[in-house]
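#lab-general

N.A. 3:47 PM
ok so I finally got the sequence cleaned up, no stray characters, all 146 residues accounted for. can someone with queue access submit it? mine expired

B.Y. 3:52 PM
send it over

N.A. 3:53 PM
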Amino acid sequence: MQIDFDWLESELDSPLSKGERKALQDVIEVMFVSEGMTIIHQNSTPEALYLLQSGNVEVHGRNMNGHDVVLSRNSRLKVLGEISFFSGGPTSASVIADHPCILYKIGRDAFEGLMQAQPSLVMKLFSLIVRNMGEVIVRQDAKMRS
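B.Y. 4:20 PM
back already:
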């Protein structure tokens, strides 16, 4: 599978130069995930950052009684695993494909290489990550208020 650069530029809200496209081709692993497959396991070591190009996921966690609960069913999530990826701590939830998904996986070493070689591209990615986190917080706040 190829990287959909039109989609990626739309999500980044910025055009990509030829050099940035080449850098992303070198570090992104395009993955197809079938419905029901676990993308991220709760309490695992963060290995990668995922961009959800298409499909839908459910985010699962454990409640205070230790029971598995669905924390979010959302097709609008675009970045997965970012908190543990950057904190280095264990993943706080499991992410399971609710429908078939296409994901762009960027490993930790690859991301660190991008930080050195393509800082302007990394800033575009950070902007997407922060916007995604903000949308998640706003939705969770609205849920709590209703």
